[in-house]
Amino acid sequence: MNKIKILIISLVISLCGIQLTGCTDDFENLNTDPASLPTINPEEMLYTAEINMLTSGHCWNAIYASKYRWLQYGAGIWGYTQTQYDYFSTSIGNSIYGEYNDMGSYVTNIKYLSSLKDNASDYSNLNQVARILLIAKGIQTSDMFGSLVYSQGWLAREGKVDDVSMTPEFETQEQLVAVWDNQLKECITNLQGAMGSSSQVSLKGQDRAYNGDTQKWIKAANAIRLRLASRILKREPAKAKTIATEVLASSNTANVFSSNDDSFILWFDNLYTNIHGGDWHSIKDMDIATYCMMDYLNRNEDPRRRMYFVINNLTPENVTAFNAQQTDPTKLIPDTYTRWEGSSASYDSWTKDRRRLRYYLEQGTTQTDMRPANMPQVRLWKGNDTEGSGGNWAPVMTYADFCFLAAEFVLTENIPSAKTAQKWYEDGVRASLDQWNALGKFCDIANYEAMTEAEITNFLSKPDIKWNAGKGLEQIYAQTYIEHFKNVDEAYAFWKRTNYPNRTSSIVKFEEPIILGVSRIVPRKVIFSYPNEGVHNYINLKKRLDDMKSNPEFGNIDDAYGRLWWDKE
Fold this sequence. Notes:
By secondary structure, this protein is mostly helical. It is 45% helix and 5% strand.
């Protein structure tokens, strides 16, 4: 890998933003003038595409300040009061949309660059991998924005300057499903066709997911197909079942995820968040665990608890010493508080909720934070926070996630599979524990302590965890929600699809968020607005909204609580 080239490209990307304005002429040429592209190796573009799967702006706008609290992984956020459930606009998804557009540019550049090579066929695997990445990002982006430019997108990167490339049409979610599923199958076929070929350009060092392992990319493509099927299960059940049947067929076991080694995760080094800077550490702002999460984690003695949250300082000794210093009885910490506490997700409860208040034990020149509510493990998002030595990662689809999705299809749709729903579920739970155990170490989280087999066995024997056919679907849903602690975009799509968790679910139960006496609900899409006449591509921009609005469940374009096409009630 030419590390200098990649570093320069990556730095420019992080500085330029979505529109790539204010950059050097050379980099502008790279994105607008195909003639400049031969100076860049196609495989070097793969890393550049992969870093756009999850950026700091995405984490702040779409996760920390919105979905993380709507889904009650965390309660409250610095700088936000009664706006706890009001913060929503088109800007909430702009980072995701920008990432998608940037990825599309680089994936198209890869295609164009490799086509110029005398040995263009040796770049087949690279092109398939890049396309799988873009489709995975497209699904995530469409979850927020509905119709997207895809088939006619980024054509200028190939030197096609005409009416189509300059005024691309948007494809509806219904159209995108067909296009993406067909392309994923093509990717699998092409990857299989190149298996064993020694002439394929190596992706080692460039590919942060599988380091160029072709078989794992075949599995990833099938996993994304199953995710796509889950999106359309209510809208096009027959098509969804067909896809799931093809993916989970017993004859297809070599081509589906079978262990955590297959997890579709992009792995980056300790300095990644420095080079690609921004608010990676701002998970600190969402600094309070919820009752929802802590009730589940404590009740089931889930060993992932310490992987997700930092243990508080409420040891008996500290509580005794702190209480001895207080002259105001309202500041005494009750001896019923434990090392693991959650706070209310409801704004109207905050002033009464002592678990969220910040206290300090004064011991000479040392202050010990005695706030009861636990903080998230910041290094899960930024491995080198507070001089940590951990790495960085971006989840796309873990093996556990795949297992739970497979379990759901087998259980509810009777999809034939080499495993029963129970087996998929049990494999998923164990995989999640093992994956998070490894992630805690990889990220060098605070006070890392590996899970023991004894505590894993204890957890697996809990009534809400041990498979119970009578409540199997809720068990699958509960573990999916817990597994998605960092993959919050997928948790958001999962919640829209299943309405889980909710205020009546038993394993993981949402709290009712009350703000100024009004019960709030989770928004379902971005707020749109019609373009002004005369703007570039006006006809297609307007048609996009008209087409989505034709769905009666969509509501008004400025209604955040309406539904996109595959978010069918």
